[in-house]
Design goal:
This protein is α/β, with parallel strands linked by helices. Helices cover 29% and strands 27% of the residues. Helix 2 runs antiparallel to helix 8 (235-242). It starts with a helix and ends in a 13-residue tail after the last helix.
Length: 255
């Protein structure tokens, strides 16, 4: 059954030589992983932060890697039943099942608000009162949950960052929330500095982790050792810099 499911969903298989261990790490990704996390054509992950980090982990552990296109709402299910072994861009606050196994923190990410260039700056939560804010469907914003639930702020969902930029441009929303990493990439790719700006109000700051299936043949110790080396040697920093992301997002190692 597992092989049948994989045959339906596997869209990219990459092997750098023949892995001595013979093991394969099956990694989930999806349309919700906006660039530069995943550079997707059709349902194929052609590159980006996820592919680069997985490539480095695979090389370090001498294993193969396989990418599987999955919807956001199926990530937890597929991790639990072993359809995928690993999912990279996550946080224990977003996927909470206690059977899942978490890596060490890899880097930091901030949720910020984008507004039109000519708009008044939002500096506090009170500035957002009665505003309509674009969000990503299925995503949780813990710091704003109460404000959304009480309609202090109106939340309106779409599937992608691109759609929120389009809605903001047309004046359908007052601003939108997303990752500073994704927004930084889009601003620089499309020269958006003259049209939009990031508001002063910081929605949240959190660490990014990977999450491992309890059914994976590859242990969390192996993955954590690989990640620790990549962080220490500056490889994660170099990957983020490749996509022109500010290096201040790198997770600091505990002393």
């Amino acid at each position: 059954m597992r092989n049948a499911m994989l045959s339906c969903f596997v869209v990219l298989f990459s092997v750098k030589g023949l892995a001595a261990t013979g093991k394969t790490l099956t990694v989930g990704f999806g349309a919700h992983n906006s660039p530069p996390y995943a550079l997707i054509k059709g349902e194929v992950n052609t590159g980006g932060v996820i592919a680069d980090i997985i490539g480095e982990i695979s090389d370090s552990l001498d294993i193969n890697s396989r990418f599987v296109f999955v919807p956001r709402k199926r990530i937890e299910k597929y991790l639990l039943d072993g359809t995928i072994d690993f999912y990279l861009i996550s946080n224990p606050k977003w996927i909470s099942h206690n059977a899942l196994i978490w890596t060490i923190p890899i880097f930091k990410e901030k949720n910020v608000i984008v507004v039109k260039k000519e708009s008044k700056d939002y500096e506090t939560l009170e500035d957002l009162h009665q505003k309509t804010v674009g969000t990503i469907r299925g995503f949780v914003y813990p710091s704003l949950t109460e404000a959304f639930d009480t309609q202090y702020i109106s939340r309106t969902d779409v599937r992608s960052l691109k759609l929120n930029f389009e809605r903001l441009s047309k004046g359908w929303i007052d601003g939108f929330i997303d990752s500073d990493i994704l927004i930084d990439y889009v601003f620089k790719e499309h020269n958006y500095d003259d049209d939009f700006k990031v508001a002063s109000y910081l929605v949240s700051e959190h660490l990014i982790y990977g999450v491992l299936s309890p059914k994976s043949d590859i242990s969390i110790e192996e993955i954590n050792n690989a990640l620790d080396k990549l962080i220490t040697e500056g490889v994660i920093s170099a990957i983020l810099s490749k996509y022109r992301i500010n290096e201040s997002g790198i997770a600091k190692k505990k002393k």
